[in-house]
Each structure stands twice: as structure tokens, then as C-alpha cells.
Amino acid sequence: MVNKELMKGSTAMLILTLLGRKEMYGYEMTKEIESRSSGLFTFKEGTLYPILHALEAEKIVESYWSEQEGRKRKYYRITDNGRKQLQTKQQEWNMFRTAVDRVIGEGQA
């Protein structure tokens, strides 16, 4: 299990990355994150939806209802502004990751 404090700064980036690939509904996002992280990252509804609502309020994502196979679901998609935010967050993450690796001396004794 990963420390919640470590996860805090990256959850929005993970969600935006998924939505940058395709439009998804909430449960689909939680399963995709869990699958891609080999079960290390798990989001409960109480974690995911407040983040999605905040991103929606900031006009970074937008939602719409769609009915498929008789099932009505709320889908989310990234906006143009969201794509810009994602690019910025990915650049920040790469700088952060590189700096941490340098400090902890990845692969060095």
C-alpha cells in the first residue's frame, strides 16, 4: 500500500492521463487505474468523485450522460484546458521524479 500523502499529488494526473486516452465513466476509471498499477492504486468512490467534481468545476473535465446496453452512465472527458493542465502536470512529475531519483541515488550504495 502506498502512503496516502504520496498519492495526493498524483491522483488528478492519473485521472487526466486516463481521460486523455479515452472518455470513461467513474467505475471504469477505478478499474483501469487498479489494473495498470497491478493493484497498488485503488480508488474508492469517496476518493474518485470529489476529484472528478473539482476537475469539472475547474473546467478541466466535463461530464455527460450516455445510455449503452440499457445502462445509463455518467461519462467524463478531458477538455482542451485539461489537456494543457495534463501536459504541465506531466512535466512537473518528470522533473520531480528525476530529482528524487538523483537524491536517493537510484541504484547506488
Q: List the total number of helices.
A: 5
**Overall mean pLDDT score?**
90
Strand line-up in the sheet with most strands: 1-3-2
**Strand element count:** 3
Overall body shape: globular
InterPro entries: Tscrpt_reg_PadR_N (IPR005149), WH-like_DNA-bd_sf (IPR036388), WH_DNA-bd_sf (IPR036390)
Domain Transcription regulator PadR N-terminal: 15-87
Protein name: PadR family transcriptional regulator
Pfam families: PadR (PF03551)
Provide an overview of this structure.
This protein is α+β, with helices and mostly antiparallel strands and 109 residues long. Helix content is 60%, strand content 17%. It is built from five helices and three strands; from the N terminus they run ααβααββα. A three-stranded antiparallel sheet has the order 1-3-2. This is PadR family transcriptional regulator. Pfam families: PadR. InterPro entries: Tscrpt_reg_PadR_N, WH-like_DNA-bd_sf, WH_DNA-bd_sf. It comes from Paenibacillus baimaensis.
Features:
single chain, about 110 residues, alpha+beta, 3 strands, PadR family transcriptional regulator, Tscrpt_reg_PadR_N, WH-like_DNA-bd_sf, WH_DNA-bd_sf
The gist of it:
This protein has helices spanning 4-8, 11-21, 26-36, 45-57, 80-104, and strands at 24-25, 61-68, 71-78. The protein is of the alpha+beta class. Helix 2 packs across helix 5.
Present the secondary structure layout:
Elements (H helix, E strand, L loop, with lengths): L3 H5 L2 H11 L2 E2 H11 L8 H13 L3 E8 L2 E8 L1 H25 L5
Antiparallel strand pairs: 1-3, 2-3
Helix pairs in contact: 2-5
